[in-house]
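Page 42, continued from yesterday. The earlier attempt failed because a stray header line got pasted into the input along with the sequence. Redoing it now with the clean sequence only.
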Amino acid sequence: MADAALLSEQYYHGLLPREDIRLMLRTNGDFLVRTTEPVAGQPRAYVLSVMFDNTDDEKGVKHYVIQHHGMKYSIEKYSFDSIPEMITYHLSKGESLTKYAEVSIKTAVLRQPWELSHDDITVTKKLGEGAFGEVSKGTLKMKNGVVVNVAIKLAKLETLKKEQIKEIMREARLMRNFDHPNVVKCYGVAAGQEPLMVVMELVNNGSLDSYLQKANLNPTQKMELCLGAAWGIEYMHSKNVLHRDIAARNCLVGDGKIRISDFGLSREGTIYQMDPTRRVPIRWLAPETLKTAMYSQKTDVWAYGIMCWEIFSNGVEPYPGMTVAEVNMRVKEGYRMPLPDCTPPEMHPVVEQRCWADNSNDRWSMAEIAHHLERITNMPRPQVQHPAQPHRLIHHAPHGNPTLQMTQTIETHTSTPTTGGHLVPAHHPPQFIGSVKNSRKKKRKH
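This time it went through. Structure tokens are written below.
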């Protein structure tokens, strides 16, 4: 399938999901080339995606599979030795791509800053296994030439289903909108060739639950972890994102600072209906979510309270000695875990009354919790940069040569289209995870 000449073209985006395409193609005639997502038993193909009606959000983009016969490439009318040759021809002639519809290409959309090149990434050491492949340590050469240490999720596309690849790219899409010292940073995705790589900040002390079990932290240090987590979740909520899996195992610690991580269950919106077929972390779920399968920001607040319990319990699994089924029943009946004796007195009402209130309306928001903990600890809140609105850079070749006219959409940290949406209450209870042992998700080291 490989067209070697195409890999170096800035309008080639590799494995770019359709959810990203609509964000990048804005003006009629905008186009890019990508590859199809793999389907079992079928070879992957190149696709030319073109905006032909930017007033139609649903059907405004046409996707043309590029035919490959022998050594030639074509869409319909003509055959070419390479895809770049085909693109150059259609740009210069301005002809419609097919005889059935008046669709022509005018402006190439360049790779985004988050679309990384495999050539800039070096994998040095395997750290462990993630949900969709291995996690390794490595380096990334930035655009300015600086080399930074990173954690890399690697996924071999032939081993993944289409939906799994969508999950990986959806999580990366959410992460690249985050820019906060208490949320793990995503540098971008390398999707031009295999393996698919998601490149993230390397956090040197690993997961919070393991860190708590090894480090001998005093109450002040634990309060700082609680506040850092509150800042991170507050930031996510300000971005209209529900984490849905707040737990010590899903946070990372580096240089004494906590980062919220693992956004595999995260969704945009303020209310989300749980998929009744998915396994869910019962020990961290609020009573209303156990009853109705609905998530809200107040569900994250409840889970944050459970994580605070984990922090002061040195990483012990919540509800020790209870099965998942017992936890589900007891929490809905009103049971709450007692906080460890080492928990500072001023933290008790925050967790017991403001995080674990039975009525979600009685719980504080994460912003209220964060501001309260700031007053308790006298810690200043971190400075967060607010980037400018998206803008586009238009590059014209000398004398208006249309073959080199390109557009680069500079993506900043703005919301992306909702994949979950605001949904009606669920009619199915969540799927229980059968035992204490397998209720804990496999740790992912970064």
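Notes: The CA atoms of residues 131 and 444 lie 8 Å apart.
Reminder to self: strip header lines before submitting.
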